[in-house]
Write a structure and sequence with these properties.
6 strands; binds iron/sulfur cluster; DNA damage; alpha/beta; iron-sulfur; six-stranded mixed beta sheet; about 250 residues; Type-5 uracil-DNA glycosylase; Uracil-DNA Glycosylase, subunit E; metal-binding; metal ion binding; 9 helices
Amino acid sequence: MAEARTAEEVAARARRAADLPDLDGAIGGCFACPRLVAWREEVARTKRAAFRDQEYWGRPVPGLGVSDARIAILGLAPAAHGGNRTGRIFTGDRSGDVLFAALHRAGLANQPTSLARDDGLTLRATRIFSAVRCAPPDNKPTPGERDTCAPWLHRELDLIRPTLRVVVALGAFAWAAWWPALHAVYGVRPPSPRPAFGHGAHWSGTAVPEVLGCYHVSQQNTFTGRLTPQMLDEVFTRAKQVAGVD
Ligand code: SF4
């Protein structure tokens, strides 16, 4: 499989992706951001002590979930010792513990935990992906890295476009990543000025998915009580209502 090593190659390969499995495979062969490639591989080599006997994934992390998703959950990027270790988004870290417990309470996941790629997790009506597909240092991708990675996101949205009704943006970075996608995927000019991000923020347009803002499920937010399980439950209840999911 051809590897994508430049922004142009990412855009071309994403455009060619015939379906989600094809896209997921192509994302796995992406080396277009030198800083992130070096970081993901260094983390995979040096590891966290608690995981020293495990083989880290150390590559881009594709989306997770069904191909006819009505609800999309858009995150920032994989965590260094979560998705970058296990190879599945929001899997094997505290953020994922909080997110999947909430999805299970909402009836959108068959189990409340996401520990490894072979743990039997399945989602209902939902797909989860991130704006940037490689773990960045300090969870901070550069604007250039965000833009280079955007075609993967845009193609993924395009492939689930027939059923997608609502996007839950986890955090301000994901919220900001939605507006270029709105233009690239739906041909809709984003509102100006952009709607401000906040927990519970809501945007809707004509014939495009609605967008809900939700504080990110990071430890920083959940440990401090800025984001509580009840707040997450309210967001997913609303997302299900918007998407027409029972
Ligand atoms: S962040 Fe995205 S574009 Fe950059 S190397 Fe990873 S998958 Fe490729």
